[in-house]
Amino acid sequence: LSYNNILDIDSAYETVKEFEEPAVVIIKHNNPCGVAIGPQLVEAYRKARDCDPVSAFGGIVGFNRVVDRDTAKEMMDLFLEAIIAPGYETEALEILKTKKDLRILQTPPLSNFIPQREFDLRKVVGGLLVQDRDLGKVTMEQWKVVTKRIPTEEEMRAMAFGWKVAKHVKSNAIVLVREDRTIGIGAGQMSRVDSTRLAVMKARSSTKGTTLASDAMFPFRDNVDVAAEAGVSAIIQPGGSIRDDEVIAAADEYNMAMVFTGMRHFRH
After folding, report:
1. What is the pLDDT of residues 27-48, one digit of tens each?
2. I need a labelling partner for 39 at 20 to 30 A (CA). Which of 48, 71, 107, 225 fits?
3. pTM of the full predicted structure?
4. Is residue 148 domain-shared with residue 216, that is, in the same domain?
């Protein structure tokens, strides 16, 4: 395993830990290129892969459930560097062992995982930066609806899903989602509106009726304009911009629903 492989495996592991449902993430260059949940693991894998199958080539796949035979067979047609999961059925493991150069890693059961206060460390020239890990959570009850239109139940579920994913995308992070899968991911752009444009560009299916999750506040209304043009119907973001009123007014113009979480992620 290379240095970069280990970083990507760690990102995959941290992302799937966010979900209680069967979940799959595909990581490439330390960013998710597809995340999905589903009643069955193989269904979640297909949805995650289909978000961006080109970027998934050579990626790292993370699971939060024991990998079964059907899921293992589904992975055979795609070149992957590594997979990480809390276990593998015997037949699934035998199938995966036939895949050339695939690294297979196993974690302890995720059902026993309890978040604890930990630190992120980052080396800089002449020193080491230390900060608390981003383990904060905001429940739906803590969200603040700031637009005239209240989100539908489906949009609320999509917001919850997208907010979990955006936490693990490098800032500026914009994620277009439905309630069970990512549709387009805009990661690491220097301006937030370019991340929004990138998320729309990366989408392989219709963005009409999708929900947008942003890891930090919108500095201008342009993100809402771009999202509306793509057919986005709802937005979840932290809020806190000096132009929040303009952003909310823009959402109202398009009859969008928008909620503020009051907490940002801002992964670097």
Report:
1. 999 999 999 999 999 999 999 9
2. 107
3. 0.93
4. yes
* CA atoms within 13 Å, Cβ hemisphere of 43: 8
The tokens describing 183, both together, are: 């549709």
Q: Which amino acid does the sequence have at 250?
A: A
Residue ranges making up the domain that contains 170: 140-260
In a 10 Å sphere around its CB, with 0-12 CB exposed, 13-18 middle and 19+ buried, how is residue 258 labelled?
buried
Does residue 58 form part of some domain? Answer: yes
Q: Total structural domains in the chain? A: 2
Residue 15 parent element (H or E): helix 3-16
Closest listed residue to residue 267, CA positions, set 11, 4, 3: 11
Residue 52 tokens, joined: 């961006």
The 3 state secondary structure assigned to 167-225 is CCCECCCEEEEECCEEEEEECCCCCHHHHHHHHHHHCCCCCCCCEEEECCCCCCCHHHH
| 20 φψ region: left (φ > 0), alpha (ψ -120 to 50), beta (else) | alpha
